[in-house]
Amino acid sequence: MEDRQINPLMKSALEYGPILGFFVAYLWLKDRVFTIGGTEYEGFIVVTALFIPIFLIAMALQWRLTGHLSKMQIVTAVLIVVFGGLSVWLNDERFFKMKPTLIYLLFGGALAVGLMRGQSWLQVVMEGLMPLQPEGWMILTKRVMLLFFALAAANEIIWRTMSTETWVYFKTFGLPLSVFAFFIFQGGLFKAHGIEEDEEETGDAS
């Protein structure tokens, strides 16, 4: 199936809608306890159980509309199903809270392996979005690797030392805003190592 472009608003809705839905549902149900099959479940666990199929449906729609899912999206989906499922099955919210830690450790570790091989695996994923010279990709990859490890550490600290509500705010807003701010502050790198359109055309012509 060929990759297809979809409306950016639709793409954002499919990517962030389930996360925002999780946040709103948590605020609504956080203080409630549900008895299901003789077992009591706190609102967080119930919201997690609802989030998993909604996330998978949104991902399936994105694949149906675009014909493409990134490896990062697939890995994220697997971890959501595994650790969200464990939280629901064992009635233990800690598993779902660990998920961001493992995601960032896996992605950071993958970038580290690539760097040790002298390769920028970030370039393979993002080259179409940010045309950079090879040296620029290596620098950016090192910085993104460190960012992922820092976010993994931050997630561990927050879920282990703070309230569930604080963690939900951090997961919903803190993590995405941290990544957004990180790339905003890479302006100097993009300016120093970016490839201009005329350079790309010259390279293609050769």
TrEMBL record:
<protein>
    <recommendedName>
        <fullName>Inner membrane-spanning protein YciB</fullName>
    </recommendedName>
</protein>
<feature type="transmembrane region" description="Helical">
    <location>
        <begin position="73"/>
        <end position="90"/>
    </location>
</feature>
<comment type="similarity">
    <text>Belongs to the YciB family.</text>
</comment>
<feature type="transmembrane region" description="Helical">
    <location>
        <begin position="168"/>
        <end position="185"/>
    </location>
</feature>
<keyword id="KW-1003">Cell membrane</keyword>
<comment type="function">
    <text>Plays a role in cell envelope biogenesis, maintenance of cell envelope integrity and membrane homeostasis.</text>
</comment>
<keyword id="KW-0812">Transmembrane</keyword>
<dbReference type="Pfam" id="PF04279">
    <property type="entry name" value="IspA"/>
</dbReference>
<keyword id="KW-0472">Membrane</keyword>
<feature type="transmembrane region" description="Helical">
    <location>
        <begin position="143"/>
        <end position="162"/>
    </location>
</feature>
<keyword id="KW-0997">Cell inner membrane</keyword>
<feature type="transmembrane region" description="Helical">
    <location>
        <begin position="12"/>
        <end position="29"/>
    </location>
</feature>
<keyword id="KW-1133">Transmembrane helix</keyword>
<dbReference type="InterPro" id="IPR006008">
    <property type="entry name" value="YciB"/>
</dbReference>
<feature type="transmembrane region" description="Helical">
    <location>
        <begin position="102"/>
        <end position="122"/>
    </location>
</feature>
<feature type="transmembrane region" description="Helical">
    <location>
        <begin position="41"/>
        <end position="61"/>
    </location>
</feature>
